[in-house]
Write a structure and sequence with these properties.
Elements: E1 2-3, H1 15-36, H2 39-45, H3 51-73, E2 75-84, E3 87-88, E4 90-96, H4 110-124, E5 129-135, E6 139-146, H5 149-157, H6 171-180, E7 189-195, H7 204-213, E8 217-222, E9 229-230, E10 248-249, H8 253-263, E11 267-269, H9 275-288, E12 292-293, E13 297-304, H10 307-322, H11 339-343
Parallel strand pairs: 4-5, 4-7, 7-8, 8-11
Antiparallel strand pairs: 1-2, 2-13, 3-12, 5-6, 9-10
Helix pairs in contact: 1-3, 3-10, 4-5, 6-7
Length: 344
């Protein structure tokens, strides 16, 4: 058995409160009667009152409370197949894992900032199919297009600069790999590129022609600063050039802005809040592309059986209202056992 709203079980903590209220009500009633008259006289004043019936009604009230909460928890058993249709776009996310992403001009590093942005992006997704690619001098597909955002988050946690042994920043290779995995002709497509650098390969012109032909826009999130920072080495110290000078890696905004502009996308520099992703994904990807119907899929869903405890609760409620708190019996005062009372 499953429950649609298991958190409602905490309402059962109110049961002792309800029980205490009923006991306090009974105590106050007894106290009032004691203050009104002695035991013999109370029997004459209200001869038809039945404490036993009142107890039964209180028990029924508690049962109504128990089954009402069970109804709110929405018990479920048995399953059925349900067709799920979603509207969205096919979105490939490309993450730069070249060594320059270890620079710490943004804290804790460019790569860690990029991974945090990935997690924030996955929380914003609204039904899109998303794929994940990492790249440096070569590109690697971590995940094809999927709606399983939980798995994508697991993949994003494992991203590191050690994942691609060939160093460099082959953006065009990553873009071509993304295009090759976006094959549905009827679904709008977009690419989000998270990088700090410039493509030094000679394939970018051809890649731009392919993107234009397939009407795929590139939305770019630049990570880093234009002032730059040295690149830490695994054994300590910083990366040096051939002359022995420290290499300072800078955010190449010119190239990234140009790439976004030529493909019809937008460029945004990463910031500490989520305004950059709202600009990139919400105002960029979602607003500039008309979401299409993604391929329908079937899933098994639990059958809700809330009406069973609801029916029991209603039955106990009706029964409680039908039971009077006093006996339906008339007594003649003249037949009272106390002769003094009979004379009065």
């Amino acid at each position: 058995m499953h429950f649609g709203h298991p958190d409602a079980i905490f309402l059962y903590f109110l049961l002792p409160v309800l029980l205490a209220l009923l006991l306090w009500q009974g105590y106050q009633r007894k106290r009032s009667w004691k203050a009104l008259a002695d035991k013999k006289l109370r029997g004459k004043i209200m001869p038809s009152f039945s404490p036993a019936r009142l107890k039964v009604r209180n028990i029924l009230r508690l049962l109504v409370f128990l089954f009402a909460i069970l109804t709110l928890m929405e018990p479920q058993w048995g399953t059925r197949e349900e067709e799920v249709k979603m509207r969205g776009v096919d979105l490939m996310v490309l993450v730069d894992v070249s060594s320059s992403m270890l620079a710490q001009d943004v804290q804790p590093s460019r790569l860690e900032r990029a991974k945090r942005k990935l997690r924030d992006l996955f929380e914003m997704l609204a039904g899109d199919r998303v794929g994940l690619i990492i790249f440096a001098g070569r590109s690697f597909l971590l995940s094809p297009l999927t709606n399983d955002y939980g798995t994508l988050e697991l993949f994003s946690d494992e991203i590191s600069t050690d994942a691609i042994p060939v160093q460099g920043t082959d953006v065009s290779g990553a873009l071509n790999l993304a295009v090759s995995h976006m094959t549905d002709p009827d679904t709008p497509k977009a690419i989000i590129l998270i990088s700090d650098g410039e493509d030094h390969s000679e394939k970018m012109k051809k890649t731009l022609e392919t993107l234009e032909e397939k009407k795929i826009k590139v939305f770019v999130l630049g990570v880093g600063t234009t002032q730059g920072a040295p690149i830490p080495e695994a054994g300590g110290g910083f990366k040096l050039n051939h002359d022995g000078d420290t290499v300072v890696s800078k955010l190449e905004e010119g190239f990234l802005k140009d790439l976004a502009l030529k493909t019809g996308g937008i460029y945004v520099r990463a910031v500490t809040g989520d305004e950059d992703l709202k600009e990139l994904y919400v105002k960029g990807v979602r607003d500039s592309l008309q979401a299409g119907d993604l391929k329908a899929s079937k899933r098994r869903v639990w059958e809700s059986r809330y009406y069973w405890p609801l029916g029991v609760a209603l039955a106990f409620l009706v029964l409680e209202r039908m039971i009077p708190s006093s006996k339906r019996k008339k007594q003649d005062w003249s037949e009272a056992s106390d002769p003094e009372l009979a004379k009065t």
